[in-house]
Amino acid sequence: MSLDVGLAALIVDVAQPSTQPVLELVQVSKVYEPKGAATVHALRRVDLTVDEHDSVAIVGPSGSGKSTLLHIIGCLDTPTTGTYRLNGVDVAALDDSGRAALRGLEIGFVFQQFHLLAHRSVLENVELGSLYGTTAHPPKRRKERLDQAMVALERVGLGHRVNALARTLSGGEKQRVAIARAVSSNPSLLLADEPTGNLDTANTHAVLDVFDRLRADGLTLVIITHEPDVAERMNRRVNITDGTLTSAVAGE
Amino acid sequence: MKRLNFRRRGAASSSGERPKLFLADLIGEAVAGLAERPVRTALTSLGTVLGIASLVATLGISRTAGAQIVSRFDALAATYVIAEPNSGGFGSNGPKTSTIPWDAQTRIERLNGVVAAGTLSDVNVGSALVRAVPLRDPLDPIEFQKTVKSASPGLFAAVRTRLKTGRTFDLVMDTAKAPVAVIGRLSADDLGITRVDQRPVLFIGDRPFEVIGIIEDVAREPDLLDAIIIPDQTAKSLYRLGAPGSVRIETGIGAAQLIARQTAVTLDPIEPSRIQITTDSEPTGVKNSVQSDLNGLFLALGLLILAVGAVGIANITLVSVIERTPEIGLRRALGASRIHIASQFLTESALTGLIGGTIGSTLGILVTIAVAAGRQWTPVLPPSLPIIATIGGGLIGLAAGALPARRATHLQPIEALR
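YS: structure for the whole thing
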């Protein structure tokens, strides 16, 4: 497999200097009104802007609304009120299919539970990250996807485990595979939901090292965590309590 | 180490974009999904395997049995031709528009493909009864109303008679207008004639005929078993038979249709259409009847098994959707649309059905061949059946996957990932 080809495929769309943030939330609120239960204000008038190459940690206790915020940023949910723009696209104006296209094109996800397909190889799991395309950006052919997956795996330090089945990996390796899958499609934003929540200290540091390398590559990163060590590795930290952003603290 | 270079797409991701997945990738994902759980896939397709195998075996065995029955009938029916003068528009009782010539047997026997031929006619003997003369008590004769027929010597071979005793009359006897008779087994029983070595005599009215043979069995024209058969020329001389009533022809296998066409011309060269030719078409009906009986029973059974198989696929696919909920969430997060999710589960269930259809179809063919081999029959299967059955299996799988696929599309990504 040619790594040069894979690398070339990842270097895409060398754009003009940016004039707008990668994501911009303006007065975003999310209200749930379950039948027969009290109304829940998950987010209250949230304003958040993340620029290109920035890295932001969203920190808060359980039930504070950080997962809801991540879902909205990840186009998995829509705000009840307010405006959310991702790379200039008004997400609220998109239907379910349009949001799916936007997710596939712009966002990479890393989950606490890894969500790997246990019976598939490491390479096949990472390849899945670029399986779906859009009408304007059709999916790449399999060979090209595999090349991209190889580059991503090399970057997270798992180039030697491409043929291992996902179920045979350690927790840290699984999360690094999940990160490789998330970045293999060259997204403009990586969203990580408690990426180290299931890892021991050594694996946590290994994963954070990978994030550092990706940030050095220019990745824009938003990470949800309740671990101070993780938050400190980001450029910025945003605290959220009861659905409200209470503070924004500079990181290291 | 290679660096990843992340660049913003910016306005490249416009609001009009839709998710896209190549068909080859969809099929690849479905195959991979099935291959990840080989035992489950095998068990899921088992219902389709049994259903399709039952259907194919049912149709195959019934078709094979039908063909076997037909081949046995064909051995008789496809080698028998009857020629009669056409009636003049008043049904079988109307005046005849043509006559069978007296030398019909000789003419027909010249045709290539004819095994045997002979004329057969009803002889009008008025109200004359038939009686035998028992040698022990000539003063107490027994009288019967019997059908009297006349024939040319070749008839007995053409209708495949088997003699109990004696012989049939020959051309010399016919030409000599000899007063001889061959009688059927039933007539012989009525008349009390059991042997011919003592040259028994029967009387038709007052005319004596020497019984020279008794027919034990006849493959065609079973009426002859209860009849008195005398030579054509004897009937012509004694009972003013105007012309032979019909010609019965035994042909070689496969020659019946050719002989049927040639017979009319041979018997009436001037106006062949005045001769009516009959070949037996009964086996087609028998074949259809046999196939219908077998098909009705086993098709119902096969469809029942197939329905159970479809329910099995639907059930397991539904379980699979529930079990793979996180995977659905992941795919949605990676950019799959609801249609992509539905398509994947539909493709997986259709492939499961297709696998079942292929294996079932093969099993059905093997069962048919095994049954045919056991009976020393020739296996007969419509060439399209295995293909149709395999595709049918796929369609059943597709239909069975509809409900689970619908359920999968209704899963919200957040719920699925939770």
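YS: worth flagging: Chain B has a mean pLDDT of 84.
IM: good catch. Also The interface with chain A takes residues 1-22, 25, 28-29, 32, 36-37, 326-327, 329-340, 413-414, 417 of chain B (CB under 8 Å).
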